[in-house]
């Protein structure tokens, strides 16, 4: 999941929070908007898959000036 850093203003998230308040949903204290990517990698181990995924995030998918990310790597069953 890629999200905007807390120090960066996210006008879309602000607009969503305002709309929720207008719908009388006053219990929402904060809205964070993000991007979600699912990648299927052919790797020999979870460690290798995580290394590849981090490189992809760092080099292409994430703008480190404005965004941060959380990475989750799972092993998938191989269909024979």
UniProtKB/TrEMBL annotation:
The keyword Ligase applies. One of its GO terms (molecular function) is ATP binding. The keyword Lyase does not apply. It holds the Pfam family PurS. Keywords: ATP-binding, Cytoplasm, Ligase, Nucleotide-binding, Purine biosynthesis. It comes from the Bacteria. Transmembrane segments: none annotated. GO terms for biological process: purine ribonucleotide biosynthetic process. PANTHER family: PHOSPHORIBOSYLFORMYLGLYCINAMIDINE SYNTHASE SUBUNIT PURS. This is Phosphoribosylformylglycinamidine synthase subunit PurS. It comes from Secundilactobacillus kimchicus JCM 15530.
């Amino acid at each position: 999941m890629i999200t905007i850093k807390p120090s960066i203003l996210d006008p879309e998230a602000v607009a969503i929070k305002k709309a929720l308040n207008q719908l009388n949903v006053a219990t929402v204290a904060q809205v964070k908007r993000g991007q979600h990517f699912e990648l299927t990698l052919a790797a020999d181990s979870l460690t290798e898959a995580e290394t590849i995924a981090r490189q992809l995030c760092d080099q292409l998918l994430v703008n480190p000036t404005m965004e941060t990310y959380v990475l989750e790597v799972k092993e998938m069953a191989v269909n024979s």
